[in-house]
Amino acid sequence: MERAVSEVVRETARDARRDAPAPVLRLEGVGFAYPGAPAPALDGVTLEMAAGEGVALLGPNGAGKTTLTRLAMALLHPARGTVTVAGRATRGRAPEDLADVAGYLFQQPEAQLFERTVRAEVAFGPRRLGWDEARVAARVDAVLAALDLAPSADVHPYDLPVPRRRLVALAAALAAEPRLLLLDEPTAGLDRVGRGLVERAVRAVRASGVAVLAVTHDPGFAVEALERGVLLAHGRIVRDAPLDAVLGSDPAALPLPPAAEVARRLGLASASLRLADVARELAERCRAADARDKFPSS
Amino acid sequence: MSAAPSLAPALAPALALEGATFRYPGAERDALDRVTLALEPGRVHWLFGPLGAGCSTLLLAAAGLAPRLTGGTLTGRLATLGADPQAAEGRRALAGRVALVTPSPALQLSGIGATVFEEVAFAPANLGWPIGRIRTAVGEALARFEVAHLVERAPAQLSGGEQQRVVLAAMAALAPALWLLDEPAGALDAAGRRRVAEVLREEAARGAAVVIASEDADLLVDVADRLVVLAEGRVVADGAPRALLAGDAIWTEGPGSTSVAALARGAGLAAPHPLTVAEGVARWSAP
Hints:
The complex is a heterodimer of chains A (298) and B (287).
Chain A: H1 2-19, E1 25-32, E2 42-49, E3 54-58, H2 65-72, E4 80-85, E5 88-89, E6 102-105, H3 118-128, H4 133-146, H5 162-175, E7 180-184, H6 192-207, E8 211-215, H7 219-225, E9 228-233, E10 236-242, H8 243-246, H9 258-266, H10 275-294
Helix pairs in contact in A: 3-4, 3-5, 4-5
Chain B: E1 15-23, E2 32-39, E3 44-48, H1 55-62, E4 73-80, H2 88-94, E5 98-101, H3 105-108, H4 116-126, H5 131-144, H6 160-172, E6 178-182, H7 190-206, E7 209-213, H8 217-220, E8 226-231, E9 234-239, H9 241-246, H10 249-252, H11 259-266, H12 277-284
Parallel strand pairs in B: 3-7, 3-8, 5-6, 6-7
Antiparallel strand pairs in B: 1-2, 1-4, 8-9
Helix pairs in contact in B: 4-5, 4-6, 5-6
């Protein structure tokens, strides 16, 4: 009996290896330099992302974060090494050749908005992939509702405030049901409500198996929506670890979100950096302190 | 005996709006709705409101771009540094004195400058400054935003954060009397955000009027002298930032507050809330 169990365990492990899905994104030894630039933008970058993973791509301005996302969407091609998205090497491929597997949000949403209405913009990707109109319409409605854009469906994207254009571009990126979502500063300029919408959308697509790689300087967004931190400096990956180990390691450059910083300094036992979890711990501490004040032990 | 008249005349407002109302073409409601404000030299004014509140529109109107470029109608009175930014004469008077920083640095770059130096020198050159003055101003401005090393690079090839620093430097080179900034740190790293905060204080100390529209309460809580809260085009609160941010009304009727105030509310604690990490730690540390 015991032997049987251990055999099952071994077989299961073997099956898991054999059936382990290929990583959604794989960079191996990637180097890239812009023409005329004094130093390479990326140098020897190796990174793998599995389905459903959420990676925050961190680092100072000019570290190579945006370049990495451009390589992952086949907008740029590596000078050295390979980039593979959902099993397809990007070499010889253009972004449209990855349109069914990769969705992206540019740092400047204007770079990707060209339709006359929000609805047409969001429907563009699915239509290009040949979906039937009923499926397109249902998907577009669902995505617009998730990002609170339904009231703006018939508006020209350029008639919206800049931050809301970012939500439109995110909706367009989500619409074609990508397996890999590449986001460049998805919360920049958004108000509290907008940030919440983006955080919820990212958590929801990750739960459905989408891998999300987000360039961000917003540690609050990172801890609410992602869990792994990849730190770039001068084109190289210098740290790749759970976010709670990466954020706060160098408070001047990579601060924790303020609520998590408070928790750390207070010694709260919260296992999570997310605001709701820290708030629960804080509420318990304050209740305990109140109780001590009312019923002094000595 | 009558009181001696003050030797210092009251400072003329850098930006004055009286019943200013603006509507974009085809819009169903006013983007600015009877806004009356007087914003002063030497102070940092923070416009804060949810998306669509009118903060960005106010900056565009003050810069003379709305309605001139956006279309739409502006009624009421609006004076920028005492001039009418809609009139050709006013725009001439304001040239080089008003710095507008939009939230889209890639779109704001002139596209003409082959190098960062040329980009930052573009406006001073157009104002006819002598080359020696231009060189000094460009060098100082790039150093202030920590991008002096990029001076020979092509602006289009820079990262988004680097472009945002270049745009800020291009405006700083003008030593403007009025700053109009819309989410100027959205692409910046932690060090860049702190630098922007420091420069805004330096510019106010120099006597410039600073007006910044931003959702970044954690950055601005210790930068702004005055907080103007907008909602649906109207001024709904106007006063000392800390008092407004520590209360609950700014959550129920406005855009919210800092992350530490959000934490306090999330824990169900009573206002006034601490606003910064240091204040939160001080408040909640066990005695």
